[in-house]
Amino acid sequence: MTRVAVVGAAGRMGQIIAAAMAGQSDIALSVLIDVRPPELLFGARHVGSLDEVDEGTIDVLVDFSTVETARQTATWAAARGIPTIIGTTGFTDADFAQWRADFENGHLLVAANFAIGAVLAQRFAVEAARYFERVEIIEYHHDRKVDAPSGTALETAKKIAAARTTSGLAPMSEPTTREPSVGSRGAEVDGIRIHAVRMPAMTAHQEVIFGGVGEGLTLRHDAYDRSSFAAGVILAVRHIRRFPGLTVGLDPLL
Ligand code: NAD
Questions:
Q1: Helix or strand run (H / E) with residue 198
Q2: Which tens digits make up the pLDDT trace of 161-178?
Q3: What is the DSSP annotation of 24-41?
Q4: Which among 56, 53, 54 has a CA at the least distance from the CA of 7?
Q5: How far apart are CA 26 and CA 24, in angstroms?
Q6: What is the whole-number distance in angstroms between the Cα of residue 88 and the centre of ligand 1?
Q7: pTM of the full predicted structure?
Q8: Atom 21 (ligand 1) nearest CA
């Protein structure tokens, strides 16, 4: 039985992750950590901070909170050798450098997207990248999302760009010579165009559109609601001990 504590457990993601954990026969949800009381406890105990947690009572720590809180979570867990999974997003290169050192002898998984389909779609996009002359990304999200493009789109663009470079593909030429409305061709990330759509009723969706001579290929992933992230987190809880040090992204676990 793996005993799990969730930081940010009263939040939108925290409640979904806690519910998913509580439904697993090999996982015991032990502590919910949040500055505000969670609506549902799922049989676990609520505390306001990690300072109130007895490290001997948990095997894996999961964090879906805020950037500042997740940094504290990582520091607390590294000092105690507790395998940790961070789903919070928005970290800097300096954070990852710090964690690479702090978890040299521990286990930390940081993933910006725990939807298994999204991770696979990204893997398939990298596979396709070397065969197609052109590629662009369209990401669609709900109308409350404050950042654009999405972290997943940024990561996908960077991985596709790296795959194109490795396979010797020339940079894409830009056909546009007149752009009366600046930005019509989207943002450019490592030479890949990303277009961001914001709509009510959407959750998180992404299309990677490839074009070659006489053919096209579109890879699309749809996350219809936040429960799409739960299976990836459960997978990470079950397997994190097999991945020493810092692991970035869910891909190595699949
Ligand atoms: P939310 O605001 O609903 O929840 C955050 C929770 O953290 C809140 O309940 C808040 O009270 C709590 N919190 C804040 N400071 C705290 C502290 N010092 N100690 C304990 N708890 C504290 O946000 P959300 O929508 O659940 O998203 C949380 C994070 O997860 C965001 O960074 C979001 O981008 C990320 N996210 C990641 C994925 C993924 O697949 N990796 C998917 C969805 C969201």
A1: strand 192-198
A2: 999 999 999 999 999 999
A3: -TTEEEEEEE-SS--S--
A4: 53
A5: 6
A6: 6
A7: 0.90
A8: 34
Query: Which residue in 107, 141, 159, 221 is the catalytic one?
Result: 141
CA–CA distance, 166 with 154 (Å, rounded to integer) = 18
Rounded mean pLDDT of 204-233? 96
- Give the domains, in start order, of the chain with CATH numbers: 2-110+227-253 (3.40.50.720), 116-223 (3.30.360.10)
SS3 252: helix
Average pLDDT over residues 87-116: 95
11: helix, strand or coil: coil
* 159 carries an active-site annotation: no
| Structural contact between residues 24 and 13, judged by C-beta atoms closer than 8 angstroms | no
**pLDDT (0 to 100) of residue 69:** 98
Q: Are residues 121 and 221 in contact, defined by beta-carbon separation less than 8 angstroms?
A: yes
Work out whether the CA dihedral 56, 59, 65, 67 comes out positive or negative.
Answer: positive
